Amino acid sequence: MDYRDRIVRDPAVCGGDAVIKGTRVTLRTILASLAEGAAPADILQDFPSLTEADVRAAIAFAAASAQEDLPVPEIPGVR
Predict the structure, then answer these.
(1) Can you tell me the distance from the alpha carbon of 18 to that of 25, in angstroms, rounded to the nearest whole number?
(2) Tens of pLDDT along the chain (79 residues)?
(3) In a designed cystine with 11, which of 16, 20, 27, 66 is the match (CB 3.0 to 4.6 A)?
């Protein structure tokens, strides 16, 4: 999934925090909800302006960010 079509930053919206395009729902809000154990269906119920694809975009963004920012140590003997 290419999250870049769904996630935007605009200084005039939510202080420039990353949001789902066309909403004021921040990426931080979605990811925090998921981290606390909310299911995507719960998030969609709480934020009816979101779609399932929006939630997947937030997860894809987090995965890409983790891959870029967090060096994961190799396990010795495993390739």
Answers:
(1) 9
(2) 788 899 999 999 999 999 999 999 999 999 999 999 999 999 999 999 999 999 999 999 999 888 766 665 666 775 5
(3) 16
The DSSP annotation for 8-55 comes to E--TTSGGG--EETTS--BHHHHHHHHHTT--HHHHHHH-TT--HHHH
Which phi-psi region, left, alpha or beta, contains residue 10 (left: φ > 0; alpha: ψ -120 to 50)? beta
Is position 30 within any domain?
yes
pTM: 0.81
Evaluate whether residue 74 is within a structural domain: no
What is the domain range of residue 38?
3-68
Does residue 79 lie within any of the structural domains?
A: no
26 - beta bridge partners?
Answer: 19
- The domain tally of the chain equals 1
